[in-house]
Amino acid sequence: HRKYVAFEPVRKTDRRWPDQVIRKAPDWCAVDLRDGNQALVKPMTVAQKTRLFDLLVKVGFKEIEVGFPAASQPDFDFCRRLIEEDRIPSDVYIQVLTQARPELIARTFEAVKGAPNVVVHVYNSTSTVQREKVFRMDREGVKEIAINGARIVKSHADKDPDTNWIFQYSPESFTGTELDYAREVVDAVNDVWRPDQGQPVVINLPATVEMATPNVFADQIEWINDNVRYRDHFRISVHTHNDRGCAVAAAELAVMAGADRVEGTLMGNGERTGNMDLVTMAMNLYSQGVDPRVDLSGMAEITDVVEACTEIATHPRHPYAGELVFTAFSGSHQDAIRKCLAQYQEGDQWEIAYLPIDPRDLGRRYEEVVRINSQSGKGGVAYVLERDYNISMPRWLQIEFAREVQQTAELDGGEVDSETVHRLFGDRYLAV
Ligand code: KIV
Ligand code: ZN
């Protein structure tokens, strides 16, 4: 029995992506403490970072990018605190970002000394515009930076065999990079790291700036997937930003096109319009019967901690997490929800009109679903009286009383709470 049912592809097209649905959750990497943090008006304190780290662990993330320690003293101190206070569970990898420069890589290795499991994430920018206008370098020069970075990472790690190392390389601004050149750089990095000889490697392909529709990004991922060396021996990761509002869609299509891993942040905090929202993508999988391999059932705690650490409020319409996303004010929606819920029994497949998932799966309550204002109708008013006061009305009374509640709401201009509905009902029908 499955509460949520996966969609099957309706038709096979000539798309080359191997699949048109996601059947298994990708590996996740939460970058809230690095990409999310670097975009905040007020970067997190060490105490805030620690609180958010503990939440990410509790939710179940196994790879967590904790900072850019060579670029920021608080990030360095945070790494040391995590390690010295023994806060990192044995099945969790902390990830640290560094540019491909010798002194920065050396400082990064200092920051993570003594950690059991570390992803060293080295990057350099490869796009045409960065090569030509920022670095004024040719393709070979930029490729050399990546190869050198890879060599230095390897030589530091070789000296410290007590840590389990994963090496990660990002050609930053991948979406602005010629594909054949991106592949050349990735192959060159892997020639140094040799994932085929047992070294765990992640190649992370970022939409540093989202520049095209998600299908174009997925085509790029598919092309790399099909054309790189050592493909069976390393994970392809994607790291999408939300400039066109499609970061989640791009990551989803990228997984269909062959990506194994997705980086993002809770609620999508991150540079500019943000990073890919882990909550939305994980819950999208969940709602189609795919185990997301993270536990988002404590959504209230998740939004509380994220808001306290980022000092950014959750939008009331944020998918799965916002205050209003399981609320129906309008009469026809309320009526349909009420009828479906009346027929629903625990253990049934979830088929409730206007509610894509059961709000209780996120720790939310049915009480939030039906709320009354001037847009509401008889179904909503009847639902509230039944739910909160065990009063059921015949249909003619529902119609009559709903009109009265609607008039009150129109006069007030706002929401009519359940106590007021009950009082109006008492005044009109129960007064002695
Ligand atoms: O957006 C980006 O390209 C990044 C890289 C450092 C992975 O954050
Ligand atoms: Zn980023």
Automatic annotation (TrEMBL):
User: What's the cofactor?
Assistant: Mg(2+)
Q: What is this protein called?
A: 2-isopropylmalate synthase
**Primary localisation category:** cytoplasm
Tell me the superkingdom of the source: Bacteria
Alphabetically ordered keywords of this record = Amino-acid biosynthesis, Branched-chain amino acid biosynthesis, Cytoplasm, Leucine biosynthesis, Magnesium, Metal-binding, Transferase
Q: What is its EC number?
A: 2.3.3.13
| Protein's pathway | Amino-acid biosynthesis; L-leucine biosynthesis; L-leucine from 3-methyl-2-oxobutanoate: step 1/4
Q: What class of enzyme is it?
A: transferase
Q: Which organism is it from?
A: Tamilnaduibacter salinus
Q: Subunit structure of this entry?
A: Homodimer.
Q: Which residues form the Pyruvate carboxyltransferase domain?
A: 26-300
Does the keyword section mention Transport? no
Gene (name only)? leuA
Q: Which residues cross the membrane?
A: none
